[in-house]
């Protein structure tokens, strides 16, 4: 029986975390054996496909690693990666890990303020970007004293020209599983975004959580693609790195804006067998008549970030001929709960069962494990290889994330007698929109400096397409006219200076924000007041 197979997998699972552990060796060097094994198919803007092998990746990443060393960059230094899905993104990560540096992925839609905050917070000494990113840096470079080098793949300080004379020989430094490799910034659910620092073991920790929703990945002829940006943990560690670890080819494509027709054609043309499709992408694909007519060859589809529900699961079976498996995780501790139709029935509304290797429980306010059927906080027991090392330079915040040996996710759920975990809600105010987890704190901090705004609260409101839309509830300063021009200025300011995916699609004006007696904004009241307004 399927349930018995799941129980046997959990009971028999053992982690294999070697004492020497370097991500560049695990996702590149182990396959760079002269066989010309295909690592990546990069689809360029003009439709031309560039085939990139593991040997190519090793050759070029060694050159870039030696360039970094010649620039005085070394072990423990932070290197920002402000690029879309392209081979240079991967090469920068590989080169950083080869020399023991720490890579910092950055979303290309970030505006100047968001970039400046993250680069300053981690004290990045170098940044690899493209022409668009270099243009943003011109306005903030003077405020980043630690940033010594900016390499542009499109020109200027041209990365390709600079690495050409460098040696293509480099042996990865010896790193262990707990040596730092990667900083991924959270969405800033409470206050400013925090840098989640991960060790070289993080990929090994992700593997069961990728293999389970993708039906015992890898299988022969598997090829993986996601529209999710590689700057996020979902694109980088749910797709790119696990695929390369297993020697599976990844399709890379810069999709500036998700186009459902094009996405279906791309998956059909490149015979994509495995896809991570966020719920918003699935809802947009659902608007395309008869997706099956595109000739898809999908073997597995995983989705995470929002609950799909019975109707979407039924659509997925009709459109793709398979069951979409949901999964759950956070930047700090990812892919710990998952569905797998090949192991157990997928239950609508449930996000799955604990992934083998991870101990998951529901805790009460006192930190005690609750009985089955009781609502509480999803928690993961430490130590766990997928778990972060801590927040960058935030020991107090790191300590607050734990209760004893349990990492507290802050998400509320119920676990039943069969181990199914059903998501209930969040005990913070994070907004889930179009697959992004958006923290209101960063947007509020930014808008508070707007010359027309006296006070602001950012909330998420129900949205049929995006799950939630960002709404800014604004108290204008005295004498300010609250009109459509101000709405447009607020939206444009957030989109251009902070990040495009953070801009408020809805702006409401009020005379005062509702507050508790202690001065805390009553967001629940704001959500109730504006939820029915389009």
TrEMBL record:
Any one GO molecular-function label of the UniProt entry: fatty acid ligase activity
Gene3D superfamilies per record: 3.30.300.30, N-terminal domain of ligase-like (3.40.50.12780)
Domain AMP-dependent synthetase/ligase: 49-392
Keywords: ATP-binding, Ligase, Nucleotide-binding
UniProt-listed CDD domains: MACS_like_3
An example Gene Ontology biological process: acyl-CoA metabolic process
Domain AMP-binding enzyme C-terminal: 442-520
Family annotation (InterPro entries): AMP-bd_C, AMP-bd_C_sf, AMP-binding_CS, AMP-dep_synth/lig_dom, ANL_N_sf, MACS_put, Mitochondrial_ACSM
PANTHER family membership: ACYL-COA SYNTHETASE MEDIUM CHAIN FAMILY MEMBER 3, ACYL-COENZYME A SYNTHETASE
Similarity remark: Belongs to the ATP-dependent AMP-binding enzyme family.
Protein name: Acetyl-CoA synthetase
The organism of origin for this protein: Falsiroseomonas stagni DSM 19981
Native organism taxonomy: Bacteria, Pseudomonadati, Pseudomonadota, Alphaproteobacteria, Acetobacterales
